[in-house]
Design a protein that fits this description.
It is built from 16 helices and 24 strands. It is α/β, with parallel strands linked by helices and 487 residues long. α4 crosses α11 and α13 crosses α14.
Length: 487
């Protein structure tokens, strides 16, 4: 698209154009990815300022710079008050406003976003719709999987994905919307048909600094939604929607709500309950255990009811939803008298929800292997440690993704919380050895819980990502144990 057309009616200022009109092929925010004909957006980030990388972008072939202040380079520069928001607006225009051609559902909250989006996808497909999914684990168009780096892609990548979805005839887009993406304007300009809210607990305060800021970021989704489905059992739901003139539907187990669940039965591989909604009642079976999946299912059902999907399809979709990788995933322990559960739980609330659910069906001890990530919210580490200690029978405290921090310093923070409880524990920094210890010390009917990494297939240490897929690690360790038993 010609630069003049791209910035038309934006109010942005163009300098150094020299009377030339440039054909813009792509918009990039990473100077290393810029190619000839590209526009480089100098995004002001939390830790880095894109203006400092403009020279490198020009060396790689950038034709135009999107800036917040004039830079000393004799090239066309588009000056905007907020380069990140401007990048989102220009990306929408470059890709032909694909969001306007799609029905888009957004789901936000601290925990449960991924599972809820998969549930909505499953129901929609039962209704014959082609679904696009954008989320933490992967992006999906129909049956085609597209890799992802972030829960919600940066605005340029998001608009490109939405363009692909519109071109490929997607009927409904279901998107995880993170607090980072809302605060950083990655979804700026997108109108959501429905916004869904799971819960809000402590996380990402390394970025947001205060809980009020975290809540304010989540609230932005509902400022841009035509309808809201929210968790009435979560105390932050009222604050989230306070002052917003958006119609809403509520779901809950304890508080009065539009959608509620009764007679909940949690088993090792599934959960069953009776659900009442404005569209009727039904017995629900979900092949993923845990009380929190009752909440996820009710949120998904509320979204689907608003979309007009029939109750029988909602029942089928929830019943047949594929287990989400690394979310309360039961691993194969054939030949051993204990179970292993893999879950992404990496927040205090996530740990509590996971372990209370496991205790519902565990006949033996609950052994929890966990750690905390480096370069992230320090305050939650001791809280997670205390939560794991209170809801486990034994803890193996280990490393997660230490990133650039000292793993033992992180473990020390975790132990500040663990030591507030009476739980027995060991510290084994090496995560593989920690898992091995848990498996070799598990007794009949014990449940070994691997918390924190879930779907991740790597461990990040000093800015290097090493292969580490816990499903593979567990399979290898169990195979070693079988061989040792045969000797």
């Amino acid at each position: 698209m010609l630069l003049s057309k791209l910035i038309e009616d934006t109010g942005f200022t163009l300098i150094n154009a020299g009377g030339k009109d440039i054909d813009i092929k792509r918009i990039e925010y990473d100077s290393r990815r810029v190619k000839a004909g590209g526009l480089f957006a100098c995004v002001v980030g939390t830790f880095k300022d894109g203006h400092d990388f403009a020279e490198g972008a020009l060396a790689n072939g950038a034709s135009v710079l999107l800036v917040e202040r004039e830079l000393p380079f004799p090239v066309p520069q588009v000056i905007a008050p907020n380069s990140r928001r401007a990048m989102a607006l220009l990306a929408q225009k470059l890709y032909g406003y694909p969001a306007k051609q799609l029905r888009i559902i957004g789901v936000t909250g601290t925990n449960g976003k991924t599972t809820t989006t998969y549930m909505v996808k499953s129901v929609a497909e039962k209704c014959g719709l082609k679904v696009g999914l954008i989320g933490t684990i992967r992006n999906i168009i129909g049956d085609r999987v597209i890799s992802t780096q972030r829960t919600t892609p940066e605005s340029t990548e998001l608009q490109e994905i939405l363009r692909m979805m519109a071109d490929e005839g997607v009927d409904l887009v279901v998107m995880e919307v993170s607090s980072h993406s809302l605060d950083q304007e990655r979804v700026y300009g997108i109108e959501f048909e429905i916004g869904g809210f799971t819960n809000l607990t402590q996380d990402h305060l390394d970025y947001h600094k205060t809980f009020d800021n975290y809540l304010a970021a989540k609230r932005k989704l509902f400022e841009r939604s035509g309808f809201a489905v929210v968790n009435a059992d979560d105390p932050y739901s009222k604050r989230l929607l306070e002052g917003l003139d958006v119609p809403r539907m509520t779901y809950a187990v304890r508080e009065p709500a539009d959608i509620y669940a009764n007679d909940i039965e949690i088993c090792v591989r599934d959960v069953e309950f009776d659900m009442t909604t404005p569209a009727g009642s039904a017995h629900i079976s979900v092949p993923i255990p845990g009380l929190f999946n009752v909440f996820n299912a009710m949120l998904a059902a509320g979204i689907c009811v608003k979309l007009g999907f029939p109750m029988d399809k909602i029942v089928e979709g929830l019943r047949d939803v594929a287990g989400v990788t690394g979310r309360m995933e039961s691993l194969d322990t054939t030949g051993f008298p204990f179970s292993v559960i893999l879950d992404f739980a990496h927040t205090p609330d996530g740990i509590i929800n996971l372990l209370t659910s496991v205790r519902e069906f565990a006949k033996g001890r609950v052994i929890t292997v966990f750690g905390c990530g480096g370069d992230r919210d320090h305050a939650k580490r001791s809280i997670m440690g205390e939560a794991a200690g209170r809801y486990s029978d034994f803890c193996v405290v280990t490393s997660d993704n230490p990133r650039t921090e000292d793993p033992m310093a992180i473990i020390g923070n975790v132990l500040d919380g663990v030591n507030k409880t009476a739980v027995e524990y060991v510290v084994i920094q090496n995560r593989r050895e920690a898992i091995k210890y848990a498996l070799t010390h598990a007794r009949p009917d014990d449940v070994v819980v691997l918390a924190g990494k879930g779907h991740e297939t790597y461990q990040e240490i000093n800015n290097v990502k090493y292969p580490f897929d816990e499903k593979v690690v567990v399979a290898e360790l169990l195979d070693e144990m079988r061989k040792n038993a045969d000797r």
